[in-house]
Amino acid sequence: MLLRVEGALNKVFGNDLNPFYQLGALGFYLFWVVTVSGVYIYAFYDTGTGDSFDSVERMTREQWYLGGVMRSMHRYASDALVLVMVLHLLREFILGRYRGARWFAWVTGVVLIWMLLAIGINGYWMVWDKLAQYSAVTIIEWFDWLPIFSMPMASYFAYTDGLDNRFFTLMSFFHVTIPLLTLFMFWIHIMRISYPVVNPKRGLMWGMLLAMLVLALVKPALSQGPADLGIEPGSVGIDWFYLFISPLLDVWSAGQVWALVFGVTLLLGVLPWLPARFKQIPVAEVSLENCNGCRRCVSDCPYEAVVMRPRSDGLPFMEQAVVVPDRCVSCGICAGACPSSTPFRSDAGYVSGIEMPSLPMAGLRAAMTGDLAKLQGDARVMVFGCDNAADIAKLRSAGVAVLSLPCTAMLPPSFIEYALHEHRVDGVLITGCRGNDCYHRMGGQWIAQRLDRQREPRLRGRVERERINQFWASSADFEALSVELESFRVGLRGLASGQTETGKVDK
Ligand code: HEM
Ligand code: SF4
Ligand code: SF4
Fold this sequence. Notes:
Helices cover 50% and strands 7% of the residues. It is built from 16 helices and eight strands. The chain has helices spanning 2-17, 23-43, 51-61, 64-94, 103-127, 130-144, 165-189, 202-218, 245-251, 254-270, 296-300, 333-337, 361-374, 413-422, 443-451, 478-501, and strands at 285-286, 306-310, 319-323, 354-355, 381-386, 400-405, 427-432, 468-472. The two termini are 52 Å apart.
């Protein structure tokens, strides 16, 4: 279902601007919008029991064109941040990208949920309107249920003069320090990701900004009357993105809500280790005698899982590659980058500098050549695909051989040349996850750049480009992929008849 929704969004926005492909980056962006608008409104904010409400009101009414707009942007960007975060969480979960080495991003993400909610709740209290009063009283009573404080904190909220200016100074302090800690947590969250995408595409940034601006003008964020601890706030409008716990406390006991919060957090936190149909294939391994320390595996690994260390085996190279097993997601992209993975090596059991133990390069070459030898008829095609995208096994036929890899970028471009030149296959079709949506983040980009000769290892210039086709297809796009294969084969037949006429082949 997710793939279908994303496919529809691709039709509207194109793969480049599909917001679902940039949810993490959108989170960062919204955080910056919240920060900039927050800094502006902070300049006009006064701390004090009545002053807080009055200063926010002044800003909203007297300076509606800037202060009011900034306040609304601050609110709407905060709401959008929660929405984006929830979608990001669900997407990673649905795609199964929370297990194995990805546990780190997942668990730090779970911490981020509560940090962001804390900032939002704290922010609402700073307005000190009726909504703030309702939220503060319910949340403080909820915390009083825990045996933390010697006297109930709610007693401060029990009478009109219970609060003094120190409360608002404390709230302001929290509203600056928790976001700073959150920013630090963002950094930890993406620490084990190479080339993390933290800026959405420009069109998406402007689109989001415009949408929030329109919303700010059409439906400005307003306060809900000054708080008065002597009077129950009565009915208030709730921001369900941040303040959902308070209405929950109206229907459930404090203990039940704590049980829910702890339960959900614990469940999310241990999710990466719960049993599931997850196949962890063995991580990459370096073979020192085949590693010349070129660093290509380091620059291509999407998960910072390969590091360079000083040479330890006496070979005349400065460095050697070392895999950090805890970070490796077994995508095989490093093996596709290694110069010694080339199938043009003479020994049958050759070993590459970096290998996937479950799918060594020599085995890959043997499987490919075995399949190619069996191909019959014209327009014979070798299809290379990805285990996380369209199931290419179903494309296999008398004239079509298939090889599915953990990621298409595990394929060294020399394999394409090998299939076309050594085995005289008529064409090679490369497929994998949809554009901009590589399951292993960088694979689609790397393979496209290698074929375009913009990245090492490059596809050699002598390889006929018209015999290579790239078509990116998720498991929901199988039909489109099979149609593409057929039209590619038609094209190859045309190429063959053209060449026969000019006497280029069959010499
Ligand atoms: C607003 C808060 C969050 C922000 C700004 C954020 C941002 C990001 C960014 C920028 C990335 C890297 C994306 C890429 O370049 O491929 C990422 C990855 C990830 N995030 Fe978040 N994230 C947030 C919350 C969460 C939450 C709540 C979870 C789940 C509990 C989560 C789980 C993950 C996972 C598992 C990855 C790694 C995906 C992979 O390995 O390919 N994130 N996040
Ligand atoms: S298989 Fe290679 S590229 Fe992929 S995460 Fe492991 S070390 Fe990095
Ligand atoms: S790509 Fe291969 S040769 Fe280069 S450093 Fe990595 S393992 Fe060594």
